[in-house]
Amino acid sequence: MDKPKVVLGVSGGIAAYKACELLRRLTESGHDVRVVPTASALHFVGAATWSALSGHPVSTEVWDDVHEVPHVRIGQSADLVIVAPATTDMLAKAAHGLADDLLTNTLLTARCPVVFAPAMHTEMWEHPATQENVATLRRRGAVVIEPAVGRLTGVDTGKGRLPDPTEIFEVCRRVLARGVTEPDLKGRHVVVSGGGTREPLDPVRFLGNRSSGKQGYALARTAAARGARVTLIAANTGLPDPAGVDVVPVGTAVQLREAVLKAAADADAVVMAAAVADFRPAEYASGKIKKKDGKEPDPIVLVRNPDILAEISAERARPGQVVVGFAAETDDVLANGRTKLARKGCDLLVVNEVGERKTFGSEENEAVVLGADGSETAVPYGPKEALAETVWDLVAQRLA
Ligand code: CTP
Hints:
The protein is an alpha/beta fold. It contains 14 helices and 19 strands. It has an 8-stranded mixed beta sheet with strand order 12-11-8-13-16-17-18-19, sandwiched between helices. Helix 1 (16-28) packs parallel to helix 3 and helix 5 packs across helix 8. Bound molecules: cytidine-5'-triphosphate.
């Protein structure tokens, strides 16, 4: 099969260096990538780098290799165009259909999905001119990723950072696989918890679990791609923030409960993918617990943590709020899943069979989604994104 053809447009911002990492991910995962920088982008990263990493010649303007008509051909033959970083100037040109270099010509000749990953200072991003250009591009069907919040070029911080290249790559992969889909969660606020809580024993030790957070992140990423405003409550994950998602880091089950309840107050849906510790040490030692010569260690006394899923299911913050839980079972998966669904009182329960194919930390998952209405949706073994999409399909049906 031919490799999917991707055009990586790079405009002139300091984040251009992060596009090298995106380029690597795209080529290493089997995409044929043609890099089209603007002249300003070459102030940040030179043509030699783009050419060497992509294996293709690199030009910024329409006057090279004119016999090949590059200003038309590159766009026409692309399966996806991704512009990262997209400066405020590039967004303005794209929105107004200007065509004064190879990249802007390519944007006008492309008939494939186009993704923009903006990066700029907060003031520029928030300026009504930029916001109107972004709205125009979205109305025409382009995917414009929300910039991340964090450190900007100088000492200042705010909204305007280029999202992590791994997350831009995930957006590209999704758009290539599914096209630009109807944003069926637009106008919705969804809350997702992910990762695993840690219950401290003393300043250096904790009781924890192996949850990687990947399923929660896949849920957050796919909900954002479907147009939702997403709050991700992340317990001890260390993963890059999904593009366009508000991430609230937490440590313990009690902190997770507080963050989930706060975010759920105006949420249309809450998905509890986090592995929450059922128990925590009854006492926290403020100093490190030391060995005592010749003595057995003191037993660790545990107390119950609140059951967050049961609590939010019983006391819905708004009428019609859809609540989804996760359950890992080893035996009698469906029967145990049904009992748990009833006990927790949620609308949907995603039941994983844990066994030979491990779920924790892996990229793939297999599950059955049980509905309180008696429905049963099997999701075959596959990427965690695929399971996430099914969960949102079922949530969207219930919200409609
Ligand atoms: N959960 C929660 N609060 C807890 C424990 C779990 O909100 N204190 C949520 C998880 O986020 C997940 C689901 O409940 O959505 C998982 O439940 P699980 O831990 O499997 O169920 P338990 O009630 O612990 O049942 P059992 O110990 O019998 O497996």
